[in-house]
């Protein structure tokens, strides 16, 4: 599983490198809320083992992002995590996405910038709830040391879908952190003292008569 770790870390750098998050030190989702999300995932996903709950530091990056996240992490081979309607990366994405939305999380224009499908066998997406963002990274690859059959290799690349379930490994990480609140701008209304200095004269300056009447 160590071979998948760099891909997961790179996903974290890409996700947490946004200027809005970098403005302040991010804080992990509180333990009780992270635990509730963990139980919701385990109750709505059809596979095991369950998720480990960790608090981890942000990975080093060039975006001046620091702080911590509450990470929900699970991993296993296809023999443990496939079936039950999961036969592809898209299926796994849909299952995890569905479990999170069932727990009340939702996509917003802000979370859309985290979505990523730039690498084969890897997807990243984010959802929002109660001033917190959860960035999910799903990675599938070949189990280290597995020997793929010749029919699974094309143009020098292993076709993951052609491997046997026990030859595939899955890594699912959900990193949740609080979004720093936006500064509140209060409108300050100053009392303006009335003054007659700028008022028009009541009389006609040319005639000196009231109201300018001849």
The chain-level structural class is alpha+beta
Terminus-to-terminus distance? 100 Å
Give average pLDDT, whole number: 75
Oligomer class: single chain
Radius of gyration: 29 Å
Largest sheet: 6 strands, antiparallel
Give the helix level as a range of percent. 10-25%
Can you tell me the overall shape? elongated
User: How many helical stretches?
Assistant: 5
Based on DSSP secondary structure assignment, what is the total number of beta strands?
8
- Beta-strand share of residues: 15-25%
Order of helical and strand elements: HHEHEEHHEEEEE
**Which parts are unreliable, with pLDDT below 50 for 5 consecutive residues or more?**
1-23
Secondary-structure blueprint:
Elements: H1 5-16, H2 19-22, E1 27-28, H3 31-44, E2 52-57, E3 68-77, H4 78-81, H5 89-102, E4 122-129, E5 132-142, E6 153-154, E7 157-158, E8 168-178
Antiparallel strand pairs: 1-8, 2-3, 3-8, 4-5, 5-8, 6-7
Description:
The chain has about 210 residues and is of the alpha+beta class. The chain contains 5 helices and 8 strands. The strands form 2 sheets. Strands 1, 2, 3, 4, 5 and 8 form a 6-stranded antiparallel sheet that branches. A two-stranded antiparallel ribbon has the order 6-7. A hairpin with a 2-residue loop joins strand 6 and strand 7. The chain starts with a helix and ends in a 36-residue tail after the last strand.
């Amino acid at each position: 599983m160590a071979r998948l770790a760099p891909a997961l870390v790179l996903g974290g750098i890409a996700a947490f490198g946004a200027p809005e998050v970098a403005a302040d030190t991010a804080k992990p989702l509180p333990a009780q809320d992270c635990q509730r999300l963990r139980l919701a995932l385990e109750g709505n996903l059809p596979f095991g083992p369950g998720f480990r709950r960790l608090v981890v530091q942000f990975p080093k990056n060039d975006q001046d992002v620091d702080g911590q996240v509450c990470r929900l992490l699970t991993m296993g081979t296809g023999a443990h995590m496939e079936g039950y309607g999961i036969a592809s990366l898209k299926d796994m994405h849909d299952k995890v996405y569905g479990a999170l939305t069932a727990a009340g999380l939702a996509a917003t224009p802000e979370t859309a910038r985290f979505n990523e499908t730039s690498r084969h066998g890897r997807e990243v997406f984010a959802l929002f709830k109660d001033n917190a963002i959860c960035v999910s990274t799903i990675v599938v690859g070949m189990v280290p040391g597995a020997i793929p059959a010749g029919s699974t290799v094309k143009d020098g690349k292993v076709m993951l879908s052609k491997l046997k379930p026990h030859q595939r490994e899955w890594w699912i990480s959900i990193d949740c952190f609080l979004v720093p609140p936006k500064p509140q701008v209060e409108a300050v209304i100053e009392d303006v003292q009335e003054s007659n200095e700028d008022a028009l004269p009541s009389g006609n300056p040319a005639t000196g008569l009231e109201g300018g009447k001849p």
